[in-house]
Design goal:
alpha+beta, Ribosomal Protein S5, domain 2, five-stranded mixed beta sheet, 4 helices, 5 strands, 34% helix, elongated
């Protein structure tokens, strides 16, 4: 098996994943997983597809993350990993799909409109 390349997106974050068989080493922007995502919740989000399919520690990842915030990046990475695992074995698809890991979350920040303070908030109305 050669290197599998997939992409995942969330809000404005983009994750490009290069997966190959190995011992579970995850390198994100040339940094370790635990230094890039210091909180346990974000590490759990990233490892979720591996835990569901029972592949924790079986594949090495080289990840390029760009844009967005730390939460959006973690969820974009989760989607990319899920897609890569399906390319390896299509039988894992129902388990990942049941947990909602194959859905690209479409929610984005609403744009600011002219003549308003923010996307929906208006300037204070003054009668006189």
């Amino acid at each position: 098996m050669e290197v599998i390349n997939t992409i995942g997106r969330r809000k404005t974050a983009v994750a490009r994943v290069y997966m190959k068989p190995g011992n579970g080493q995850i390198s994100i922007n040339k940094r370790d997983l635990k230094t890039y995502f210091p909180t346990g919740i974000l590490q759990y989000v990233v490892n979720q597809p591996f835990e569901i399919t029972g592949n924790l520690g079986k594949y090495d990842l080289k990840v390029n993350l760009d844009g967005g915030g730390i939460k959006g990046q973690a969820e974009a990475l989760r989607l990319a990993i899920s897609r890569a695992l399906i390319e390896i074995n299509a039988e894992w698809r129902p388990a990942l799909k049941a947990k909602g890991l194959l859905r690209r979350d479409p929610r984005m920040v609403e744009r600011k409109k002219p003549g308003q303070k923010k996307a929906r908030k208006k300037f204070q109305f003054s009668k006189r």
